[in-house]
TrEMBL record:
Domain Transglycosylase SLT: residue ranges: 37-240
InterPro entries xrefs: Lysozyme-like_dom_sf, MltB-like, SLT_2
Highest taxon above the source species: Bacteria
Signal peptide: 1-26
Keywords linked to the UniProt accession: Signal
GO biological process, one term: peptidoglycan catabolic process
PANTHER family in the record: LYTIC MUREIN TRANSGLYCOSYLASE, MEMBRANE-BOUND LYTIC MUREIN TRANSGLYCOSYLASE B
Protein's name in the database: Lytic murein transglycosylase
An example molecular function term from Gene Ontology annotations: peptidoglycan lytic transglycosylase activity
Native organism taxonomy: Bacteria, Pseudomonadati, Pseudomonadota, Alphaproteobacteria, Hyphomicrobiales
Amino acid sequence: MAFVAKGKFFAGVAAALLMTAGAAQAAAQCGNNSAGFPAWVEQFKQQAKSQGIGSKGLNALNNLTYASKTISYDRNQKSFKYSLEKFMQVRGAQAIVARGKRQKAANAALFASIEKRYGVPAGPIIAIWGLETGFGAATGNQHTLSAVATLAYDCRRSAYFTEQLYAALRLIDKDDLAADARGALHGEIGQTQFMPANVLKYGADGDGSGHIDMVHSKADALASTANYLAGHGWQRGAGYQPGQPNFAAIQEWNAATVYQQTIAIMGAQIDGN
């Protein structure tokens, strides 16, 4: 009996190793130029199917193109070293605050509902909305799925963007993202520029439609933004300036210190604090 059990154990290990090797061979291979992209897409379709992606998501993979503009932008990003004052000037902070106050007044019921649900006041949400897309006016013109797929194929950050690609396909399966949706160059979605995985995790149905539409529904985009901040430790009723409890949640939104500070400053001005 002991010998048989031992034999079964080694047989199981061997089978597991063969399965692992098979999975490695089946995995779509990354590349550094457009030449291998069509073959990668065909390989990825099989992976996606095995991961439970449905027919809508799989069909969306038939309409991908290699996003050269996305790759060019990704490989040539330049860090900026503006002072806080210069950054706020360049980003038009005064105009965002002025318009943000009007948005707060015009959508008072929506923001009251969001604060009641998530504990996040209007100011920082509106500041993010204004900074990211000019209140939904500039959400991007890159085919979202092609951008994310191209970055998943590209060897530089393949693992991260493969996760984002699976998330985008699941959103398509749920009818929460159109297969032909357009957004920013790295696949950011909608009026406050969520990555697909964050839409899956923090997306909120702010308008009661039964779906999460980050592109066309400001209620969904703003509720999702509040949910993101709440999910990163936002404390109801606490302050959100540097050194205060909720500034840590704002820091999770963007890695740049001047961006974080700008959200906090503009948010307070919009809230009248």
